[in-house]
């Protein structure tokens, strides 16, 4: 991963962030500064991680609106690495993005550079999700074992939760106490434990998405073709509701259709990420499938905290990784996991319904 790779990665991660994961601007600054100071980062497939070596999944936890304004000190990955190695008694061999979406997909490049470690071409979501247990490692049944959080003040908190749900409850409480933003390592795994439990190739995918948006004469068309995405609506943002509490950003936006979509209204519900798109009371797309709001002209992603009245946007949706469509995957991150009393239907079926 070089300085030239970071802009494309940021564009791709912003798309995969489904509105959350933190604004990529912050992660981009972190990555560029770290590469400039500490050197380029080897990007390796999971197959190159030895069975008994530790993989450190890192991500920011908290409300994106807070993380955008309260920047990290830069010491957090060092504090977490040292605590993990002290607790588990072996060195960390590689960094991995816990979620490829948003700043949490770009930040690991900088964190890996600062730690002098390679970055694994994989993550635990294939997108962004708001809660700690909403990772492929939990769906695959891997034990949590260890969660370590570090904040900008230098506090380090080690948690040994009994399961993924408790890891969310305790980590969220620690995050709120830290000002609603912290860096976290969860599901620290060996190479052997990671195999079959993470979503591989997602850094490479984010780079491909970023190049598709930048290089094509029709950015939106190129993006849709790369993702095999459905355009749910093209129009203008006419209402944004956003509130921060409990370590999350919650709210909604309404898009008023223009052109061929004139006369239509699409409402998107948010919990850090875009969760469900509703039209006339009917779901047009829902988690765990991805829903992203992009600029109608440039196809650049618009994050939750950047939504504004009057923006000309397109709302896209496309299929999630197959692990999320399993019974345990849907129980973890399907619509009912977020309190919506609807059954999951794949976006490719809803878009033709």
Automatic annotation (TrEMBL):
Lineage of the organism: Bacteria, Bacillati, Actinomycetota, Actinomycetes, Streptosporangiales
Species this protein is from: Actinomadura mexicana
Domain S-Me-THD N-terminal: 5-159
Residue ranges constituting the S-Me-THD-like C-terminal domain according to the UniProt record: 164-347
Protein name: DUF917 domain-containing protein
InterPro entries in the record: S-Me-THD-like_C (IPR048350), S-Me-THD_C_sf (IPR024071), S-Me-THD_N (IPR010318), S-Me-THD_N_sf (IPR027479)
SUPFAM superfamilies referenced in this protein's UniProt entry, alphabetically: CV3147-like
